[in-house]
Amino acid sequence: MNIWDNLKKPILALAPMEGVTDIVFRQVISKASRPDLFFTEFTNVSSFASEKGRHDALSRLKISPSDSPIIAQIWGKNPEHFSELSSALKNLGFSGIDLNFGCPDRHVNRAGGGAAMIKTPDLAVECVRRAKNSSNGLPISVKTRLGFTYLEEYKTWLPTILSEHPSALTVHLRTRKEMSKVPAHFELIPEIIKLRNEFSPETKLLINGDIKNRAEALKLYQKHPEIDGFMIGRGVFENPFCFKRTEDNLPYAPTKEELFALLNYHLDVFDQNSPQPYEPLKHFFKVYVKDFPGASELRTKMMECKNTNELREIINSYS
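The structure corresponding to this sequence follows.
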């Protein structure tokens, strides 16, 4: 069964984000309003292939029942390691495998992975083929950018990947050089659709970049109905209820009480999945505590806390 064939258009997915879309935060988003599809954080194929790094790799691949269906996103540059990890993922409960050819992180790129794969297309193709041959029937998809340095790179890069006929291709509408410093190039969507239709019409096409909520995705879909779906990334920081349906198709606006309830749920799930580092939890405070009188002062007090028990005391005393 190919999960991509069982999802109704437009598919809405939570974009994989390092340090964000772990087993805890995915359950939080599922509680608020789950997308059609989840992706894991990035897992390094070479870490999984080494005895020293396998524990960390497997910790990134932990999933909960509410995650399903979920795609494992993997990165690296060693075709053999892509093969090794791909062969293990079906038994771990995943519905598909996504190859990360778009991460702009300089450390990842320096190691030859992520968006750096755009500069080594032959190697990228080999990694796709090895993953596909070893996936035990799981569909292979790719997430990438328009190019590494120049926008025009998409004209040769996207056909290279599409010629391998992935089950799905997600295109972040910026180059690696642009990072997120410029608006997404929505004007190129018709050209990308044309390339998909020419080189691999069966490939599902998803668009990523500057799409903040379901309402914005639906507007884009009305304009470009040949698109199969959309990924929302940073939009979850502005509104964790960004996937929620509304009768008027306008963005859902959660109340302060809903955000505080979701924050408490986040702390509960965090505790259930401990032991894990506490400090990264602080990155999420701005998701829930904002846009009301005293929010800044409350966040300052929360940042001083050293565990979830202290956090709950601060939050309960405020609410």
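The mean pLDDT is 96.
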